Structures are given as structure tokens and as C-alpha cells.
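Posting for a labmate who doesn't have an account.
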Amino acid sequence: MKSDPADMRQGGARRTAGVTFAARLVFDNILHSYAGKQTLHGISLTAEPGEVLCLLGPSGSGKTTLLRIAAGIETQAAGRVLVNEREVAGPSGYVPPERRGIGLMFQDFALFPHMTILDNVRFGLTAMPAAEAASEAMAALERVGLAGHAQKYPHVLSGGEQQRVALARALAPRPGVLLMDEPFSGLDSRLKDTVRADTLAILRETRATAIVVTHDAEEAMRMADRIALLRDGRLVQIGSAEELYRTPRDLFAAAFFSEINEFDGVVRGGSVETPLGNAPAPGFAEGAAVSVAVRLSGLSVSKDEGIIPARIVSRRFLGVVELLNLAVPGIERPVRARIRADLLAPGLKDVTVRVSQQDILVFEKSVQRPYIGGTQN
């Protein structure tokens, strides 16, 4: 993990994290209701020992509720939570949060402003003798590169430093499972990538099972061994980042992992006609109504090397890439494309478009099962 220069001047170079005994956490058919409205609909999900599992989804999808149920600060209406096959919440009884071996890192860090950094980290070690707790707390601060800040107070630290204090406090008791609720949402974009990479390195070193809640698909892909995509309290799909990106189960999953152009169509002779050309649709019934998703990154735009004529309506320079809005025959709304910057001459209007077949996904409207490159999922 990289330390900030200020940390190094304070003697804050971190040491290797201590190893925990990673646990398996199981959600078994979890149902939850709030104010008469069902918020979780039978979620079954397992975080394997030492795995980083991301719960991904939009606001209201049930991510944080699931995390709070695991932590023991929310109660499910039905179903079970198990840690290493031991039921900690369910019909057989309830284990209080402090006895579950689960650590929780809140979105707002929840540091006590009147306590020093060392005392904040030591707060969860009340079962230890005072001297031993102080030693463990200092070791946790060393792991995150903040030992030199032990006697300071939270308000003098940057957002990234406060995030690392919260991580040290969560890891100090060496939990078998660490729960993290939107841990990087309060950081500016400059810090986010560095702090996220540093946090992941520490999680790998401690070998704790980690469940990370996020609404950011790229963040989930950067961190997770597996991603569980939720929508409206239901599990949509679970798998590796590559699996969810390449073989999304439905249109919602496809749009969550990449920007898409969406077209409606009907299958004729094993393909569906779109304004960007015919898309293969093997396995679909003749006459089936389908939705076709084309990733923005799958469109190649050039002066005359493409197949479909188009006209640039607008272009936005975004640094490495440009975002184009294109007028294409056969469709009233603009087609969007994301291409590498500087490929097209300034002022160019009339262009041609070609589409990569691997970036075309076809979903049956009623079931929304995808076919990519002729393979049914």
C-alpha cells in the first residue's frame, strides 16, 4: 500500500497486516419488510472464506439492508444468516452483533470526534486488557500507515486518512467477516482509486472475508472476486466481473455494466434487424419480440471504413475518449458512441459506423435471456 508523503514524514509506513481466520457467511432465503413493504425477496447468497464479494445495485435495491442483517443491527422477517455453518440469525435464535465475529465499517466512518485516533481504533477491543488493546490498536494503525497520527483527533485528518482509521478499527478485532457499506463514497475522485487499491491490498493480506456494498459497477469490478447484482430486493445475477459483463442475464444487468444503445426488434430468420445492421439471434423463435443492446464502446466510427452511414450531431471530448451523438437512418433518437479521442478530424460531420458483434446482446422481451456471439446463457 502506498502511504501519503505526510504519513511517511510522521513515521507512518505501514506494516504487513495480521492474518485472520476467514469465515463463510451465508444468507439463506432472506426476506425483509419495512413499513409494510417487502424490501428483500428471498435472497440466498454465500460469501466464501477469504473472498471479496461486492453487493452491487441502485439505491433501494436492498444492499445495505442485507449488510445490516448480517451485522445484527437489522432483523429479517424470515430466513437465516449463518457464519461457518453456525446460525447467527434465524428460527433457531439470535446471536448479538459483538459475538458474531463480524466487523462493520460504516459509510460515514463514524469516528468519535472527542477520542484520539488510537482510542477510536481501541474502542472495539474492550474484551482485552488495556495494554494489550493499545498494542493491537497501534498495530492496526501501522497496517494502514497511520501510526504517526495515533494521538491526533479525527478532525485534523483528510477524508482518505479517516477512511483508513475506520478500516483499522474494523480490522483490529480480526473479524472473520468484514462488512463495508459504500466505503469510498465520501472520497473525491483523486483519492478514491488510491485508497481503494490500498484497502484491497490490506483485505488480501488479512485474508478476511469481505462484503462490500457499492452502487458503482466499475468499483465492484476493480475490487470483487464475485459480484452480486441486486434490483428491487431480488438477486439478479452473481458471478465474476467478466461473467456479468460478457454474459448479463437481462437488459438491466447489461445496462448496469456498460452504456448501451437499446433497440426493439423482431426475430426473422435467426437474426433481428436494427438501425446498426442485423444482429444474430440464434435460438430465438421466429417472430419473437426482442430487445437489442449495443455497447457504446462496440461502435467504430470512421470517415469511410464503416458500413452504416451516420452524421455527427455532437461530440464531447472526455480526455482519453470522445462521446459522440450520431444521427443514423431509421431511428429518430441519436445513437451514442464512445471512441478513442483524436481518431476523427476536427469538424468532421459525415462518417460511417461499424459494430463489433461481441458488443451486441439480444434479449427476449418476456424472459430477457441473452445471446452473445451465438451462445445461449
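Reply:
Got it, the C-alpha cells are right above this. Residues 1-18, 371-377 have pLDDT under 50 and may be disordered.
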